[in-house]
Amino acid sequence: MASSSSPPPPQRTYDDALSRLAHLQSNRTIVNLFGNDDSQHKPGPKKDLNSLAIPEMLSWLARAGYTPSSLAATGLKCVHVAGTKGKGSVSALVSSIISQYPSTSGPTVGTYTSPHVLSVRERIQLDCVPISREKFAKYFFEVWDRLSQAAREAKDPVSCDDEYEGPGTKPFYFRFLTILAFHVFVREGVKSAVIECGIGGEYDSTNFLAPESVTASVVTQLGIDHVAMLGDTVEKIAWNKSGIFRRGVKAFTRRLDGETQRGVMEVLRDRTAEKGAEKLVEVEDKEVEKWKGVGLEGARLEGPFQKYNMALAVAAAREHLIKTGHKFEGTFGEEGWKLDDIPVEFVKGLKEASLKGRYESFEDSKGTRWFVDGAHTEDSLAGVGQWFAGKVKGDENEVNVLVFNQQDRDPEVLLRALLTAAQKQSGRATPVFSYAVFTRNEEKAPVEGEPERDLAVQLKGQKIVHEASAGIETSVYNAVELAMEQVQKIAEQARKEGKTCNFLVTGSFHLLGGVLKTVEYVEY
Fold first, then answer.
1. Does residue 435 belong to any structural domain of this protein?
2. 366-423 residue pLDDT tens
């Protein structure tokens, strides 16, 4: 029997895992390092944070017991996806297609994606389903303990022995989850995986894979985002995203024509040669537009751009399956295949693919309709506006409400893109929205003594909407729970008047998570 002075056994529940994960340095903290003006005035040489990224990731990976070559030796083969817009959708589509070709042992496909909306388990999926709480906790602590032991063996400087078990001897949040995902895939016997980059490509935490571990590299649509880390032009961002190209591996992208995109395509083609990729497969819009898409009606992933994402996913999934030994019959197995040649398994995969918080719609128990998407770039929000306006009737029997926040970016360009696209799609002279509700992302209202929350971004959003149409009623809140009280009042009034209420929630994945927790939205 243990003595009364023995330390209690460490906790190993799912909630304990979440608690420890919450103490790791956040992604936002890391991103902010690139925009910290104070660092530019410190004496001594400036650190090139990008150049340190992959060496540091390899070091953490080694502490967890892995190297790129050891992962390759497990037989794991990955489709690697980067891009500004559509990379989450393409990842989900590729995974869903691969899942239609069952493995003889273990899960057929693993998926690592980000961010999550309701649960961190959304980021690590087995056969297109988030990993269970039990498995998450089990594998989380296996990685946590390996890193603690490695720090102890390396005699990392700590103030006391207990600190070896704490967050100080662990990588930041995204790196830890990346290592955890690969650990899950290895332990579960996964042989096919789809890996979505976090930010960038060349220096992304996922970009340590050996060429023999990659079957296809995909760069989805590009745009201006995270300029401090990736560059302030689309060409620089294209250079960064195409850093996932691998020697001897085909790369896939959507061919973009026109003067403004010429430089992007030149960068991608140059990087194909520089990286020694087998070739750059450029999916042409004219081929996508000719695609009949037979059987894809009612696909779960909606939106005006999804057909292009689907075409890219088909090409990448086909390459992966061929590289992993599958032989296709008929014209789809030949070099000159067309999109209309895809087999029924591909159709089923495309139709069943889903991604939480992307072009997602549902009806709650009171008959209110919800449309949610975490779009946070100009192009993405234009697409969301077009999607929403195309889904609602736009007559006097409907009340349409925008719930919006984007805490880190200027809301003016984003909101104007959303409103303009929605208005154009509707073809109406009157505004698409009756109400607009702006809120910060914090879920709970401030407690007594808490500093006042800055509402400058929300007030600017309110002003932009008023300028677009004085007829739209607006309100601003400092917490999601307060905004949702107003939302429910609007929905209740609409029901009393016999009208259908449609809510569009967009601008931030953080906002989506807070809203969905209040809408009788059951977590898996």
1. yes
2. 899 999 999 888 888 999 999 999 999 878 899 999 999 988 788 899 999 999 999 9
* Core vs surface per residue 126-140: b (16+ CB within 10 A) or e: bbbebbebebbbbbb
Domain that holds residue 376: 360-516
pLDDT range class, residue 256, cuts 50, 70, 90: confident
Residues 309 and 184 in one domain: yes
Same domain, 304 and 369: no
Does residue 84 contact residue 63 with C-beta atoms inside 8 Å? Answer: no
pTM value is: 0.90
Helix (H, G, I), strand (E, B) or coil at 360: strand
Please write the tens of the pLDDT for every residue from 143-166. 999 999 999 999 999 888 889 999
Q: At which of 298, 330, 352 does a domain end?
A: 352
**β-strand pairing of 500-506 with 369-373:** parallel
Sheet holding 360-363, edge to edge: 360-363, 369-373, 500-506, 398-404, 435-439, 473-477
- Alpha-carbon dihedral 95, 98, 100, 101, rounded to 10 degrees: -150
Verify that 407 and 437 share a domain, yes or no: yes
Q: Do 417 and 384 touch, CB atoms closer than 8 A?
A: no
> Does residue 521 belong to any structural domain of this protein?
no
